[in-house]
Description:
This protein has helices spanning 48-51, 53-56; strands at residues 2-3, 8-9, 17-20, 25-32, 35-42, 65-71, 73-78, 83-86, 91-94, 98-103, 108-112. It is mostly beta strands. It has one domain: Jelly Rolls, CATH 2.60.120.10. The longest helix has 4 residues, at 48-51. The mean pLDDT is 95.
Amino acid sequence: MATTATTVVKRFDVPDESRPFMAHGRADALDMNGHIVGCGSFEPGWRWSDDVKPIAGTDSCQVSHLGYCLSGQMRVRMDDGREMTIHPGDVFAIAPGHDAEVLGDETCTMLDFGEFGDYAKRH
């Protein structure tokens, strides 16, 4: 890690915090001068309503996500019924109010630059 007053360089192989899901993966977080950047490893079988809802305590995910999919696939269902599927190489913006699930048998790895501060964080 290299830091100065205005510059921070970190790596996800040494996260500032690792947040395990109920099962099926974890979310790693880096504090970049007060902005939290996340890297989620969502294993096959992961579903927000099973793996994060018990931690978040809300009926659907209330976090805004802005990210990039590195591997795997994820289907997102908005509370209003709209659906989208995210594939490797996709850049995405997801509003609060959704559920999501991994599709297939490959771990879905995503970088998240959105409101990641309290995502999957036990209080």
